[in-house]
Specification:
By secondary structure, this protein is of the alpha/beta class. It contains 15 helices and nine strands. The N terminus is likely disordered. Keywords: Coiled coil, GTP-binding, Hydrolase, Membrane, Nucleotide-binding.
Amino acid sequence: MPHTQVMEPQTDFARMADLMEKAAAHMKESGDEQTPGKLIQLADKTKRAELNIAFCGHFSAGKSTMINTLLGVKLLPSNPIPTSANVVKIRGGEKAARVYTKDTGVVTFDPDTEMEKLKQFAVDGDTVEWVEVQYPGTFLHEQASLLDTPGIDSTDAAHKIATESALHLADVVIYMMDYNHVQAEENFNFTKTLKDRGKPVYLVVNMIDKHIDFELDFDSYKESVEDAFETWNIHPDGIFYTSLAEPDHDENQYEEFQALLARLISNREELVVTSVRSAAEHLVDEHVQVLKNRNEEVRRELEGKLDEVQVEGLDSHDAEQVVRALQQAEAAAQALANRTADARKQMEKELGVLLDNARLTYFSTSEAAQSYLESRKPGFKAGILFAGKKTEEEKAKREEALLADLREKVAGNLDFHFKELMAKQPQAYELRDEAYHAAVHATSIALTGEFLASHIKDGAGSREYVMNYCNDLSNGIKLEYRRAGLAFIEQVVAKLEQQVKAENGQLQERLADLRKMAEVHQELTKLASKEQAAKEQLQAILQEGA
């Protein structure tokens, strides 16, 4: 069976570039004047699937000399001063030299006869944007370029800007250092920035011919270099030690370095795909930073408002704290608004349960009630002699017997519990009122003959009627206690309303301050959301063409 080779799908660089151009147009619509141009540059490079290997580092580290040596032709000046104020791009192909100026367009030169003139432009950081040289016969081809960047240690800020502005076009960074200046802090800061941006970074420690072996053996020196970068949590993709002055130096890794560049170029497409995607993402972040910078004044004004409002125990700049405090205060305000209604409902419920469960009539009550009712029937008489007087005495006796029974039952089964319940109601709401307490305990529901008589109905006589009569008496007594209880409840509610009013004033002040804070945080969130939405939209364009 013949072997079938599975071909990897080819990268559609044109499609990637098209999406970058769309994203750049979207950035430009938002008023960003800087980032869209970088993304267009990245798109142009992506169309050609061009690999850019950027040489960065100290101006004295020998970058230009290294590039000339690698190319086999002296295309770059190599003086002991920072010669390039611009990025110089060198690639393979037919001879050509171009200077891209800020005002007068592109100026072309003959790289064989006019290189000195070209080099003069290379040091002009004011009118020149970048310099490009195309030269045949080197290890480069039209889709592989070297970028010589200005020294990062230059005192000229424009040099640093030129270097940093070119990094989005670099697929691989070669960071060169002078043997004597490896542990300069700017080396660590710059290489860490590169690694944080996801760039492959290779370190070249040049001029190792300066090493004096009897002071420190070379292996120990190499270990000190690696430890220094490890301390900064920097993990380069490789470290090479080179000498151009002494090609035969025992520790010279120039040839290994040269071989690395060849491998990178042979792996061009894969490196470019990874690099441009990462660079595009970084440019999206740059664009979002532009939006943030534009919103900075508004953001500062809003944060200033947070400083103007102070709530005890709260960090006004902590949005989560503010939201929680506002929710708690609103819940407290709602509970406060409902306090009197809820209290009245609860007290009325407790009073109702007490009255419903209070038993006021027993068998003895029914017997006394039956005797009392019989004495109230028409024609009732007691005795033969002196019947009128004896009848009235018997009626009074039976009435008093029923009243005594009821008073006993009310005292033991209702009155005591009623006063205990009503007396504790203010305490449940942290209210103190001695007069109220005294009034509760002075409560007296009078049980009289008139009360008994008022509940007699026509047709009394049967045993069933006696039971109903006793129920009526019980309900009548409970009704009086209910009226007294509701009156006490109204007194408690009135006190509660005063308490609520006092608490509500302070709470409303707190609520007003918290709402101001919350509104400011909402505005800050809107700014952040717009910035995040812009980022997500650009990411969607780059990933899907949306």
